[in-house]
Amino acid sequence: MNDAMNGKGTVKVEEKLYQNRYLVDAGRPHIRVKPHQTPSRGLLAMTHLCPAGCYNLSESGQVEVSADGCVECGTCRIVTQTTGELEWNYPRGGFGVLYKFG
Ligand code: SF4
Fold it and tell me: Which PANTHER family has this protein been placed in (predicted)?
């Protein structure tokens, strides 16, 4: 039993996420950002909202994604649903996030 379960302390989200593992499907990212000049406000916000830190802003002002480490929360999919800036699919079976429970 850990401290959080004993009520002796708290566990940070980052520490919980670190327990998960991720199997990369090389060359087949499950999320792609479509080519753009200027990102929508929603897509730009993903550089701060993604819990796994998958989104970055390039020096030339485009949003880029590296889906390695994605926890498949779907936030980016919802935020960009009306803009159509992402191609979002679940990873192939056996790839992607491997959650550790408990
Ligand atoms: S699904 Fe969630 S974790 Fe994955 S890239 Fe989108 S916001 Fe990040």
Answer: FERREDOXIN-LIKE, FERREDOXIN-LIKE PROTEIN YDIT
Structure tokens at 5: 């379960």
Q: Which of 20, 46, 73 to mutate to test the pocket of ligand 1 (most atoms within 8 A of CB)?
A: 73
pLDDT at 14: 77
| Structure tokens, 7 | 């009520």
Its pTM stands at 0.83
So what's the pLDDT on residue 16?
78
**Domains of the chain as residue ranges with CATH:** 30-90 (3.30.70.20)
One-letter amino acid of 81 = Q
63 lines ligand 1 (CB under 6 A): no
Which residue in 100, 78, 82, 94 sits closest to 31, CA to CA? 78
44: Cβ below 6 Å to ligand 1? Answer: no
